[in-house]
Amino acid sequence: MDTYLKFYIDGAWVDPVGSGRLAVVDPATEQPFAEIAMGAAEDAERAILAARRAFVGFSVTTFEERLALLERILDLLKLRNDEIGDVISREMGAPRQMARDEQAGIGVAHFYETIRAMREFPFEYMQGTTRVMHEPVGVVGMITPWNWPINQIACKVAPALATGCTMVLKPSEIAPVNAILFAEILHEAGVPKGVFNLVNGDGPTVGAVLAAHSDVDMISFTGSTRAGISVARAAAPTVKRVHQELGGKSPNIVLRSADLNAAVRDGVAKCFANSGQSCNAPTRLLVPEESMDRVIDVAREAAEALRVGAPGDDATDIGPVASRIQFDKIQGLINKGVEEGAELVTGGPGRPAHLNAGYYVRPTIFARVTNDMTIAREEIFGPVLSILGYGNEVEAAQIANDTPYGLASYIQGEPAEARAFARRLRTGIVRLNNSAWDGAAPFGGYKQSGNGREYGKFGLHEFTEIKGIVGFGD
């Protein structure tokens, strides 16, 4: 608790320059449970300068030194996994066991995968007479979201450390406490001072300084497309590298060869997981027109079997959404779906009847949605599923690709047919037939879903510059 009102800069917990404070609200109760300091531009400057100083030494550490550091961090993350999961559950409303197993667990998984990838990564190799070297990009500004907080922290920090970068992290002010625990772990693991720095604050203040500062060589941002555009504009005058993982409106195509019942049930579960607050959630379910009535029945049954309730209740499937702002946005879009004539299958506006407090949303399904409707175009970021019909596979691909986003797609069907269909889709990720999460797969999108890729060896590439020493082999 004594670290909540401090920032981690240059290897120590330090007092902020100003006196700004922000309450961290439990979305299940709508009541504050913690308070953090809010950084000023001067706090961000101090952290950036610490990272710049540290880069001189950390950038030339050996592979073995960095590998040992990541292994120590991994061990400590595993020890504090449940503590981190419980904090995430309080901050953003994920059911407690899900927060431990998936929200916190995926942070552990990223360090595992980065260590594995690091051992195989070609940091130096010969290309003809040229020595090709992957060197650290420099000081990295990291801006991370609230919906999968440790996931996005770990998949940036782990490869940055592995490649010899130094960094300043600004986590979301909605879910900042897990980042403070993460900073405590890095300190205990012996990260050299100045290599990792944490400054809490908002985007227009701390985030803007990170994006625009000439001593920041790269900005790695995860969040909304709207905010990503602002970050890119601020970064442009310094011509720094800008890596962005932004919004999505992912299609889930059920081919005629699929087991319809299983595919629809899995689609509902994946859409509503984490209360629908995932950028890659399959929020558009595309099904054959002739199967629409059957799909509606299966989807309704699957959604109405899900229990919405307190994150601490082991029977809960869906907790609250993360904030009042998020709740209000989702309610507005549900109302928009009704106004525009989509068929409301289940759910709808308001809280579930058994809950009178907290940012709880009724799991909502709309059917016979057309791709020009608002609920099919905009990222809702809540437990809202749109079901669209298609006539043939050409039309299915056209509907799937008819979006400004291009993060993820899902396909259900006979394996060879699904693999062939995947080639038609303009997204960075395609998941076939309820496939498991793969920490080695590249994560990132086409179009307005961003640029660059995270996870495994792809994350290592993002945090390196390439140098060629010609004549090295002469």
Blueprint of the fold:
Layout: E1 7-9, E2 12-14, E3 21-26, E4 31-37, H1 41-58, H2 63-79, H3 81-92, H4 96-120, E5 124-127, E6 130-136, E7 139-143, H5 149-163, E8 166-170, H6 177-189, E9 196-198, H7 203-212, E10 218-222, H8 225-235, E11 241-245, E12 251-254, H9 260-272, E13 284-288, H10 292-304, H11 324-339, E14 343-346, E15 364-367, H12 374-377, E16 384-390, H13 393-401, E17 405-406, E18 408-412, H14 415-422, E19 429-432, E20 446-447, E21 450-451, H15 456-462, E22 464-469
Parallel strand pairs: 7-8, 7-10, 8-9, 10-11, 12-13, 12-18, 13-16, 15-16, 18-19
Antiparallel strand pairs: 1-2, 3-4, 5-6, 6-22, 11-21, 14-15, 17-20
Helix pairs in contact: 1-7, 2-4, 2-5, 2-6, 3-4, 3-6, 4-5, 4-15, 5-15, 7-8, 9-10
How would you characterize this protein structure?
With about 475 residues, the protein is of the alpha/beta class. The chain has two domains: about 5-245 and about 450-470, Aldehyde Dehydrogenase, Chain A, domain 1 (3-Layer(aba) Sandwich), CATH 3.40.605; about 250-440, 3-Layer(aba) Sandwich (Aldehyde Dehydrogenase, Chain A, domain 2). Helix content is about 40%, strand content about 20%. The chain contains 15 helices and 22 strands. The strands form six sheets. Strands 14-15-16-13-12-18-19 form a seven-stranded mixed beta sheet, sandwiched between helices. A six-stranded mixed beta sheet has the order 9-8-7-10-11-21, with helices on both faces. Strands 5-6-22 form a three-stranded antiparallel beta sheet. Helix 14 links the parallel strand 18 (about 410) and strand 19. The mean pLDDT is about 95.
